[in-house]
Amino acid sequence: GCTDMDQPVVVPAIADAGADKSICQGSSGVQIGTTPVATPNVTYSWSLANGTPATALSGTNCAQPTASPAIATSYVLTMTVNRKNNSTCSSTDTVIVTPVTAPNGTLAFAGTDKTICRGTTTVLGGTNDPTFTYNWAPGQYLSNSIVSNPTFNPGTIPVNCSKVYQATATKNGCSFTDDVKVTVVNSGITYEGENKCGPLWIGQAGGSNCVGATYSWSVVNGTGTILQTANDSASAYLFTPSGTTTFRRTTTVNGIACSADVQVSACGTGPVCDFNIVTLSSQKCPKVFGPGGSF
Q1: What is the DSSP letter of 4?
Q2: Taking the model in full, what pTM does it have?
Q3: Given strand 256-266, what is the order of strands in its sheet?
Q4: What are the DSSP calls for 198-267, one per residue?
Q5: Is 28 helix (H, G, I), strand (E, B) or coil?
Q6: How far is 138 from 180, CA to CA, in rounded Å?
């Protein structure tokens, strides 16, 4: 006769709600549970730890629903197996879903954009939540790139227009990013802080400014006059009829005004005028131009 053999397949079925999860601020939810058992004889049911029906779930009768609670919530998974003898058995497991908000509850934790005068400093970051770890990139000109509120300090180094920093804050598996822009106003002018005799042109020095910078000139003290401006008023031709005049150029970017001064004196009353003597010819005196002629 013939012999027929069969090997039973045992499918373990035990509730597994998965590892505890964090739901990050701004996220639509987080998936809980684990991959369903490959058999139609298993059913799933989710409830709260106190036995009431589960809330803030995309579904309560599937293996892997999406949870979006507003507060830390414990969800209990009950897995029921229908046996061949029509009896059932059940097992349970619990997962905790914890909402994580950005530092101090704000997604704009890198703070507002900053504009400063060259040679000054400013503190970045709008919050100081010690429960997060932080990283700022790039780290150039920052006092510390792994704190919540680093100090931006480029010194007198020219900064090319604006510099953008990205801050990343991490906690319990959630990472948040935010950007902040820092603009350094370069108010530097030629002969800044010096006393020169004029008239002479004074212009931009030590690097350029962002597009949109505006310039204005004024007399701080003295009888001098601003004869002419050029380069959108970044440069000016300054004159003093007598004595010494202090002129000031004010550079404004994003509503922040920064200034630099220069003194211009009338030649003969202040510092000696700058000039060069150039020898155009090595001829001796008197210069003879031709027959019978001399100079």
Answers
A1: -
A2: 0.76
A3: 195-198, 256-266, 244-253, 214-221
A4: ESEEE-B-SS---TT-EEEEEEEESS-EEEEEETTTTEEEEE-SSSEEEEEEEEEETTEEEEEEEEEEET
A5: coil
A6: 12
Structure tokens at 237: 């031709």
Tokens of 28: 């639509």
Rounded distance, CA 263 to CA 220, Å? 10
Q: Is 27 helix (H, G, I), strand (E, B) or coil?
A: coil
Predicted confidence band of residue 3 (pLDDT cuts 50, 70, 90): very low
Show Cβ contacts of residue 114 under 8 Å, excluding neighbours closer than 6 positions.
Answer: 122, 124, 152, 180, 181, 182, 183
Confidence of residue 258 (pLDDT cuts 50, 70, 90): very high
Q: What angle do CA 14, 60, 52 make, to 5 degrees?
A: 95
Q: How many CA atoms lie within 13 A of 33 on its CB side?
A: 24
Other beta carbons less than 10 A from residue 135's beta carbon: 15
Find, among 124, 118, 120, 130, the residue nearest to 143 by Cα: 124
Inter-residue contact 136 to 145 (CB < 8 Å): yes
Q: What is the bridge-based pairing of β-strands 162-171 and 133-137?
A: antiparallel
